[in-house]
Each structure stands twice: as C-alpha cells, then as structure tokens.
Design goal:
31% of the residues lie in helices and 25% in strands. By secondary structure, it is an alpha/beta fold. It folds into 2 domains: 4-134, NAD(P)-binding Rossmann-like Domain (Rossmann fold, 3-Layer(aba) Sandwich), CATH 3.40.50.720; 139-293 and 295-331, Dihydrodipicolinate Reductase, domain 2 (2-Layer Sandwich). A 9-stranded mixed beta sheet has the order 16-15-14-13-7-12-11-8-17. Strand 11 (248-255) and strand 12 (260-266) form a beta hairpin. The longest helix is centred in the C-terminal third of the chain and has 20 residues, at 359-378. The termini are far apart. The model has no long low-confidence stretch (mean pLDDT 96).
C-alpha cells in the first residue's frame, strides 16, 4: 500500500508534547489500516535542551526555539500545539493562515474570547482542526456512547460529571504557568472542566442553562524555577507569588434534552489522583466510568433480574482496544488514548474531512464556560449562547 506522508510540527516539548510525539511514532505499529505515515519534521520549544532531546532521542528531523519557523516550515502539514494555554492563539492563527492543519491541546484558548478568534481564523483558512479531548476515545467511553445512542439506558434523566485531581493540592507546588492569567488564562474552568463538559456533550447532548461558582483555595505558591512544572515543589520560606485563577469550579446544568446535571472540577482536592468520571442515569438503566479505573465500566440495567451494578471489563470487543492488547481485561493506559486521538485526527487529515472533536466542539465548550463565568459573577442561572455568533 502506498501511504500519504503527513509532516508534523510539535510546538512545546513538555509532557504533552512528548506524549503526542510518542503517539506519532506508535501509530504505524498499531494501526495497519491507516492510509498515511506520520513524519516528525520539526520540534519547537523555548528550552534548547528540550529541542536537542527531541531531535536526538525522538527522531525529529529539525529543531528550533522559534515556533514561527516551525509553523512555516514547507514540509509541515500538521501543527500540534502543546504550548502554554495563552500562547495557543498566536500559534494556531499563524498555523491556519499558513495553510497547516491544526491540532491543539485543550483549552484551545486561555479564555473563551481567544477560542472564538482561533476557531474563526481556522474556519476562514479552511484547515482541519482537532482538540485534545482525549478521554472520549477510551474504549469503554465509546461503549457507553453506543449504549446511550441505541436506547439501552432509556431516556437520560441525570448526569454527574467531575474531574478531581491532586496536582495542585500541595501548597508548596510551584507557581507554574497553569496558575497565572498570562500563561493559562482561567483555571480549572479552562483546564480540566473542559474534559467533563466535552464528555457530557458527546454522551447526552448540548447544555442550555447553568448556574456555577468558582474558588481559589491556595492563594499563593512558591515562585517557579526554570523548566519547573506544577508537579515540582518549593520549600518553606521560598519567595511566593499570587495564584491568579480558580482552583475549583462547580455547576448545576440543564440539558436541551431535559436531563439535569451536576459538575465539579478541582485541582486542589485531596484524595482523588486523576478522577475524570461520570455517572449517567436513565429510565432503563445507569452506568459509571472513572479514568482512575478506565478499563472498567459499572452498568446497571432494569432488565437484569439481579439488583446492583455489573462490572464490564475492557477488551478487544470494544472500540480500539484490540489495537493494543488482545482478549478481555487486559488493560490499556493514558498514552494509548493519545494514540487513538492522533490516529483519528491524522485519518481526518488524510481523508480531507473535518475532524471531531475539532474547534467547533471547543466553541461548544467555551459557550458553556462563558455562561458559567457570567453565573459566578451574577450568582444567577444563565443561558448558554453560542458565543461565536454574538
């Protein structure tokens, strides 16, 4: 088979940039049905050591500390943006204007307004876009989607979504860009809550009305060191700076379908490590899924004579799973979801069709986020309006 070559530029070589790079390297070994081969053309990062590592250890053809040189490279077809949130706008718009297809880690913009501008520029340029809502690709999440779509759960009445993580629970955790307005924009409402709302949009449908509130529990953190991340810690007595965005957000919502829902997101909670989870209740059954145990789904059906939940174990009967391991109850992991995500996006690029989730789904999320931020200020219910049309 003759396969199309797709040239890749990765912008930002921290954890996420490295995860996507490993993903591009793994696709040829896992998806024999692909119609393309990814090629690592150029890496860009502001730290020269990271650039050198990307070239020497990961096999990029070239490296640079100038993201504009990467975006405008003649052999690049796709730009994968893994830089801090508030840098997404100039990079994404420049890439789209250069005719490159754009995959951007979430949030697409650090603020809803930035996301609107990025989506508009990409749509005007006619490029294919993708966004890193990777948890929707978990095989058992796809199975849950199918159960809802085929009516197995009946009419959906209630949805509970949450993303609880401890990455910011240590008061000595460094004041990385994630805690600052000029690096991240908003806090958990831009970061992890976007995953929870995206899952709800995919599984249950659009949200029409919200009431929400946010809070910052740790107001000051030790100043960062060069190359330090939010996983690194300072010491008592180190100089500190203010946290400029929210640690927590909670919401009640009404779906267009009539279902009701609740959402919570926290980066300072103690206990859950990475609990991106949902519970969905219908008139004929319910189900539960949690990233911490992503290879298990709890399922309850009224038609079953036995009461209580049954544990469904992931396996090659479910979407994508068999590309990684055969049989049942053999687990896959976080970076496998990135491989699925990148495989699907590059498949869309190769076929010349718009990808989902793309920047249109990012607009769906920030329209909810905008209403939540308005509600936090007004302390009232607010309607969700597509902010791209305002």
């Amino acid at each position: 088979m003759t396969r199309q070559k797709i040239g890749i530029a990765v912008i930002g070589f921290g954890w996420m940039g490295q995860a996507h790079t490993r993903s591009y390297l793994r696709i040829p070994t896992l998806f024999q049905e692909r119609t393309y081969d990814p090629e690592l053309i150029i890496i860009s990062d502001n730290l020269q050591d990271r650039v050198d590592e990307a070239v020497e250890s990961f096999g990029f053809r070239e490296g640079t500390t100038d993201w504009q040189a990467a975006v405008n490279h003649p052999d690049v077809d796709v730009v994968c943006i893994c830089a801090p949130n508030m840098l997404h706008e100039p990079i994404a718009i420049a890439a789209a204007e250069a005719g490159k297809h754009v995959f951007c880690e979430k949030p697409v913009g650090g603020t809803p307004e930035q996301t609107v501008r990025i989506e508009a520029a990409s749509r005007k340029a006619g490029v294919i876009t993708g966004v890193g809502y990777n948890y929707r690709w978990a095989p058992l999440v796809q199975y849950a989607k199918n159960l809802i779509a085929d009516g197995t759960l009946g009419e959906i009445t209630n949805y509970n979504g949450r993303f609880f993580t401890m990455y910011g629970s240590d008061p000595m955790g460094l004041l990385s860009w994630r805690f600052q307005l000029d690096g991240a924009g908003h806090g958990v409402s831009s970061d992890i809550l976007s995953h929870s709302i995206d899952l709800a949009h995919m599984l249950v449908g659009p949200i029409k009305k919200v009431v929400g509130t946010g809070h910052t529990y740790i107001p000051d953190r030790p100043l960062p060191k060069a190359g330090g991340t939010h996983y690194d810690a300072g010491q008592p007595g180190d100089p500190t700076g203010p946290v400029e965005n929210e640690d927590y957000f909670g919401a009640l919502v009404q779906f267009e379908s009539g279902a009701r829902g609740t959402f919570e997101a926290s980066r300072t909670i103690v206990g859950p490590e990475s609990q991106c989870a949902f519970e969905i209740y219908g008139t004929k059954g319910s189900l539960k899924w949690n990233l911490e145990t992503m290879n298990e789904l709890q399922l309850n059906l009224v038609s079953d004579k036995a009461r209580g939940y049954t544990t469904v174990y992931a396996g090659d009967r479910y979407p994508y799973h068999g590309h990684f391991v055969p049989g049942d109850a053999n687990s896959i992991g976080y970076e496998d979801l990135k491989v699925i995500e990148d495989f699907e996006f590059l498949s869309s690029v190769a076929a010349g069709r718009q990808h989902h989730p793309g920047f249109s789904e990012a607009i769906d999320y920030v329209s909810v986020q905008d209403a939540l931020l308005r509600s936090w200020k007004s302390e009232k219910w607010e309607d969700v309006t597509n902010i791209a049309t305002i």
